[in-house]
Structures are given as C-alpha cells and as structure tokens.
Amino acid sequence: MIPFELVPWLSAAIPAVLGALVLGVLSAPRVRLIAAAIGALAGGLGGLLLTAPLGFCMFEPERSDIDPWLGVALIALGAGLLIWVGSLLMRVIGGQTDWRTAVMGAETPGLFRRARFTPWVLLTPTLVVLALFLYYPAFDNLRLSTLLARLGTDRTAFVCLDNFAKLFDPRQNYGQTVYATFFIAFFTVVIGLALGLFIAYMAYQPVKGGSIYRTLLVWPYAISPVAAGIIFNIMFNESAGIMNHLIRLGGGTPVQWLQDASIAPWTIIIASVWKSLGFNILFYIAGLQNVPDDLQEAANIDGANAWQRFYYIVLPLLGPITFFLIVTNITYAFFDTYGTIDFLTRGGPAGATSTMIYRLVDNGLNQRDLGLAATQSLVLFAIVILITVVQFRTNGRRVSYGA
CA 55 to CA 206: how far, in whole Å? Predict the structure, then answer.
C-alpha cells in the first residue's frame, strides 16, 4: 500500500517520465532534449490536471477498491491529453507545421488572414452565449458528479468519485443498462438506414404524384417521441392493441409486446425506426438527386444490372449522406428515445429497455439523486463522443466528397 503522502509526487513523476520517453523517442535527434523536457512537463502537469483539484481523494485509505483504479484512469487521461498537446508543440518547434495548422488541421484560406482582432470581435456574441449556456453548465456538471446532491435541497456533500464507483457496483446493474442502450441503438441505426435508403430509392423512381408521395413519407419525423409512444402503445397494447387483435383474428396467441423482456426492446426499436425514418428518407432523396444519370446509363450500356448499378455507383456516391446519417442516427438513438421508452415501457420489463438516457433522467428526477445522474450523463457523453470520433477516423476517411 502506497502512503498517501507520496501519491501527489508519484502522480506527477510517473507520467513525467513516460512523457519524456514518448516525446523523446518520437522526435528528431536534434530536438530530442527539448522534446524530452516538454514531454516531462506535459506528463507531470497532466498527471495532476484531474486529480489535484479533487485533493487525490480517490487514493485515500478508506476508499473502495475501485476508487484507486479510477484515479489511475484520471491520471492517464490528463497526462495523455497534455502529452498530445506537447507533441503538437514539438511539430511546430521542429518546423513540420505552423501553429494554425497544428491546432486547426489543414490550412484553409480565409478573409481574415491579416486581420488579427476582427474575427474575435465578430465571434464574441456567439462565444458569450456558448460560455453561458453550454460550457458553464458542462463544467458545473463535472462538479456535480463529485457531490452527494439531492433534487429539492441546496445542501451538498463532497463524495469524491463515489458516484462513479456506484456504476461498477453489481447491485446497480448498470452493465445491463449499457447493453440495452447499445442493443437498441445498433438496430435502430442499422434498420433505420437500410429501410430509409430502400424506401427513398423506390420513391425516387419516376411515378405520377411522386412529390406528394415523398412528402407523406417524411411527415413522421415531425411527430414528437411522446406522440410516437402513444401511437405504438395503441398498436402494441397487450389487451386492446391492434397487433394482438389481428393475431387473435388469425387464431394466434397474443404477444406480450411490452411485458416480455425479449420482445420489449424490439418494440422500442420499431417505434424509434419509424420515428427517424422520415429524416433518413429526406436526406437520401436529396442525395439521390445528385447521382448523375449518365453514369448509370453508361453502366447499363456496359451490361450492369440494376443491383450492380446500385451497389457500385449509387451507394458510393451516397457515402457523404450515409456518413452524416450514421452520426445523427447514433445521436438520436442514444439521446432522443427517452420519450418513447418512458411512455411505452418505463424502462421495463426488468430493465430490458432501461437505456442510459432513460436511467439518468429517472435517477435525477424520480429518485432525486442529482450527483449520480450527472455522473451517468458524463459517461453517456463520453461514449457518444468516442463513437463519433471512431466514425470520423474510420468511415469518415472512406467517404469521398468529390464531384
């Protein structure tokens, strides 16, 4: 057991050594000493970045077994972030790029290249609004996740990372919540995109009254998630629903659409797909209008059948639209399904449809545990950001925006 008095020193020393080694090895020999110094400084400060404001409380002797591991994760996260910033700085020092390209990415022309203060003057109103209504609440949410806070009372107590440790407690069953979230989100995105593309491709064909038909396909997107929940409750209600009525007419046994743990998630998926279908159809129809007809005519002359023309011509040209829809549908599946779930199943049966967004709202409003709800919101935010970054790093590079 490491004495608590040594924790601050080790939290800075170990990342500092690692930072010096990483930047020293990756840099050119002529700037290796400078790189090692920057890496040591970045690693040391990064190791303290997220743990020092909390007073290294996660390493106190009376903490649970999971708290030290959470502390190590915070040290690694902070050190990794500042070491990455140090690597960008070394690229500027080494002459590989300038600071604008290192921070913003590829160099792009603009109207304010010689005007130093004009862009900031024009951006000030937007930055003020973002700071007041986005960045400040986000940082306050970080603070709230370290507190024992109850809805309806101003009294709070600092609990370090206890709220995060609760998520690893088997009694909380948070693993099932994460599984239900990914299960519902995965099939909502896959089925929604595939069905949206199929319907859009069919609707795009030249038919009489096509504009009216396409408009009717888009209108479900304008319906709120709660209204979608009401509609599907009428359809899938076990006793008086339309679906079970049709099953009874056919001589079958009624299905427990909302009470069976293996069927209820699929009911949520069907409702969510229907809710987002109009949005997907709208963008796919817009994308199909940009597919050149001469390419398909040339492929048809060369002997390509309808499937080959769709797979090798239409689908690649819809790559930017598909990539955009993947990102937006993932965001919808993770965040905007709360209303549908709350009206249809309320997270049941046995937590089968209790997604992360539903659970954090339930913890915050119904159970009045604001600290735990804030912690879950941070976990959900981190997962969505991670998925989005992976999408941009993988599928984003395969998308061509050329004419």
Answer: 67
Backbone angles phi, psi at 355, to 5 degrees: -80, 175
Residue 339: both structure tokens together:
């209303």
Residue 357: what residue type?
A: I
What pTM does this model have?
Answer: 0.86
Give the model's confidence band at 89: pLDDT under 50 very low, under 70 low, under 90 confident, else very high. confident
Cβ proximity of 39 and 24 under 8 Å: yes
Q: 360 and 233: one domain?
A: yes
Mean pLDDT of the chain: 87
CB 204 within 8 A of CB 285: yes
Please name the residue ranges forming H helices in 105-169. 118-130, 136-144, 162-167
Name the region of 386 (left: φ>0; alpha: ψ -120 to 50; beta: rest). Answer: alpha
Same domain, 178 and 322: yes
Q: Is the dihedral of CA 21, 27, 32, 36 positive or negative?
A: negative
Best CA proximity match to 376, nearest among 317, 335, 322: 335
Confidence of residue 270 (pLDDT cuts 50, 70, 90): very high
Tokens of 155: 């009294």
> What are 82-87's contacts with CB under 8 Å, separation 24+?
82/19, 82/42, 82/43, 82/45, 82/46, 82/49, 83/15, 83/18, 83/19, 83/22, 83/23, 83/39, 83/42, 83/43, 83/46, 85/42, 86/19, 86/23, 86/38, 86/39, 86/41, 86/42, 87/23, 87/26
Q: Provide the CATH number for the domain around residue 224.
A: 1.10.3720.10
pLDDT digits (tens, 9 = 90+) for 110-157: 556 666 778 788 889 999 999 999 999 989 999 999 999 998 888 899
User: Over the stretch 156-200, which tens digit does the pLDDT of each residue have?
Assistant: 999 999 999 999 988 889 999 999 999 999 999 999 999 999 988
State the Cα–Cα distance between residues 19 and 96, nearest whole angstrom: 20
CB 86 within 8 A of CB 19: yes
Q: What is the DSSP letter of 105?
A: S
Average pLDDT of the segment spanning 337-342 = 90
Q: Which residues contact 142 (CB under 8 A, 6 or more apart)?
A: 374, 378
Contact present, 225 and 340 (Cβ < 8 Å): yes
> What pLDDT sits at residue 364?
92
Contacts of 90 (CB under 8 A, 6+ apart): 23, 26, 27, 31, 34, 35, 38
Last residue of a domain, one of 73, 92, 107: 107
> Is the domain of 193 the same as that of 80?
no
